[in-house]
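In keeping with the milestone schedule agreed at the kick-off meeting, the structural modelling team has produced records for the first pair of proteins. Each record is given below as a sequence line and a C-alpha cell line. The laboratory manager (R.T.) confirmed that both were archived under the project's standard naming scheme.
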Amino acid sequence: MFCAKKPVSPIPEAVFLATVTDNITIGLVEGMLTENKIPFLKQSRGSGGYLQIVCGASPFGTDFFVRKEHLPQARELLRVYLHIQEETE
C-alpha cells in the first residue's frame, strides 16, 4: 500500500537484496550476512527509521543492499535460511 516505490540503492556499487518488515527478520538477515562476511547496507523506507525507534516496528520495511558480486550468495542464504522465494524479474 505505502511501499509501492522501488528501492533505490544508497550507493552505486550496491544492488537491492530484499525488503524486510519485522525486527526479528531484520536481525536474522543482519546476522546471516555478517556471519558470512557479506558487506551490506540497510535503509529504512519513508519514516520507517523513526517508527522503528519510537514504536519498535515499521510498516514501511527496511531495504537491504549488497555489492553486486555478493548478490547470488546473499540470495541463496535468504532462500535457504528464511525460505524467501526469488521474485521473477
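The second protein of the pair:
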Amino acid sequence: MEEATRLIAVRHGETAWNVDTRIQGQLDIGLNETGLWQARRAGGALADEPIGVVYASDLSRAWQTAEAIAQPHGLPVQPEPRLRERAFGTFEGMSFAEIEARLPEQARRWRERDPEFEPEGGESLLVFRDRVTGVAAELAARHPGELVVLVAHGGVMDVLYRAATRQELQAPRTWQLGNAAINRMLWTPGGFSLVGWSDTAHLTAGDALDEITS
C-alpha cells in the first residue's frame, strides 16, 4: 500500500481586506503588518518540522506567508496557481454589506452555499471544489511518505476540511479558518483524512480572523 503523505495546510496571514470584510478572490492583495507577523510566527512554529516541499498559491498574500514558512528550511516556494482562492468575479473588491445591498438574490444564493451558483465571471462551489481537491491530491501523490506544506486561502482550507471529513458542500460550517492557522491532514490514494485543525497556539489569542464567507 502506498505510504501516506502528511500535509500541513496554512491559510495566508491577515490582509487589510480581511479586516474590511472585502472579497479578495483572485485579486492580488498583500499582507498587512499583522499578516506579516502571523506569517513569521507560523514559520517559527514549523521550523523544526521535517518539511520536504512548500507549495503556494501565486497570490501575494499566500506567497509571502509561504516564504516565511520555507525560509527556515532553506527551501524555495513552489508556485501553484491552482491553489488560488475561489474566483468571485464581480463580487471581488466588494464588502459583504455591499453585496447584500446591491445583489440581494446573488447574496442569498452565496449565503446558502448553492453549489451551482457562480458570481458573474467567477466559479461555482462545484468547480472550485474539484480544482482544489484535484491539485491537492496531485501534489500529495508526488511525495509519498513526506511532509508537504500547502499555503493558500480560506476557501481552499474549507474545501480541504470538507474533503477530509466527508462534509457536503452545503453543510453549515462549524470549523475555523483563521489567518495563519496550521491544519494537518493525511493523504493516501483513498483520499484525505483529518489529523488536526486550526492550531493557532503560535498566535495571540483572538488575533487570527476567521474566513466567514467560506
